[in-house]
């Protein structure tokens, strides 16, 4: 194949669809990270709560979620959530005879919740948030403990209110200690975005598989044998670039969060 | 947390009511990797006999067609789970499948299954021993090969049809069994493999699969298929994609 037809091939509709599918990966990473920070803050809050019951919930959350393989949880949560929603829809809209029958799920057509890519993507983001929120909770919890006690005592001596101490001293300085850990969690999350195709989201991995699949008949397009490795190689490069950009970004964030503070390490 | 859960539940219900409102949309599940029945063309769009036929059916029953790509081995469970309303994926009618789903009128006559192997290879199908036989999982061929040759041979089951061909060419399997309609264009295009043995008639004709409770939809699609067969549309499409027929001309 000469270079001109090569360029034509890699810019045809199915390749453009592949490039465009990167949006799912990026949305899942960014939205997933926001959810992860959210759940991480809640988890960290629970872990240092005054009440032992809440502390227990926080500990169970972080320990359990860090122990369950992310693939498994990724398959479990959206399915469980879908069926829970359908359960409530069924209670509201199916007749009691249909509910009692129990041979099919959902019991009646009105209780059917159709999931499109958008809903799956949203559920994927929340799932990432919950799983990586458990890691983030540990990081944030540890970072809050790392803020020197003397700082808090000094603030107290200057007459800061407990709220001011928490937000202006503890949380403000916590980021410096938390960022290296959070950047690790981000890297794990970015890697996990390659799981999206498990929820039938047509992401870069699924498209790579489709485009790389061998083709032997001319009416389908260019004839080639199994090229999946080439497409996977492109994905390797993509993820390496993403990792590099992320690292630069976190370095910048680190220096921003640390401004006005004595170098701690 | 509670607020988030409430928001999620509300969003879910809103989304579901929106899809309920969409009304006259027929979601058709297809594999998208089974040329010439259904495949992705160079534009990344679904194409093939069943895509054209599905659109013709939708037009007849005044529905909007929406194709959903789904892997073959989960195509029946996901129909039942409600991810789409019909399967059009080169699926032969069998008694076993009829236990879980309903079939419409057939839109392709029973398609014989064939064996393919590397060129110039010969096999004694009456006493086949120690061979590696490839099939696509959850197909009529998979059942047939397991029953007929499973005891003395290795049966390798593939998730996707293109991969089974690639492995036949690569020599990972000795014999591949699949629908003749799928194998013919490939064997014709490739010099390195050819048909061996006799064609075997296994399943019934090819039809669309529906959930058993959707009887009204079944009736509507059935009627549409009868009309499309009578007016020559089905034969025309079969001629275009398989260079066969006519089967249904009156």
Strand order of the largest sheet of chain B: 5-1-6-13-7
Which percent band covers the strand fraction of chain A? under 5%
Distance between the termini of chain A: 55 Å
CATH fold-type name of chain A: MetI-like fold
Poorly predicted runs of 5 or more residues of chain B:
16-22
Largest sheet of chain A: none
Architecture per CATH nomenclature, i.e. the level-2 architecture of chain A = Orthogonal Bundle
**CATH class category label of chain A:** Mainly Alpha
* SSE-based structural type of chain B: alpha/beta
Q: How many extended strands of chain B?
A: 13
The chain-level mean pLDDT of chain B equals: 91
Mean pLDDT reading of chain A:
92
Number of helices of chain A: 11
Report the order of strands and helices of chain A: HHHHHHHHHHH
Secondary-structure element string of chain B: HEEEEHEHEHEEEHEHEHEEHH
- The count of DSSP E runs of length 2 or more, i.e. the number of strands of chain A, is 0
Tally of individual domains of chain A = 1
Number of helices of chain B: 9
Shape of chain A: flat
- The radius of gyration of chain A is 24 Å
Oligomer: heterodimer
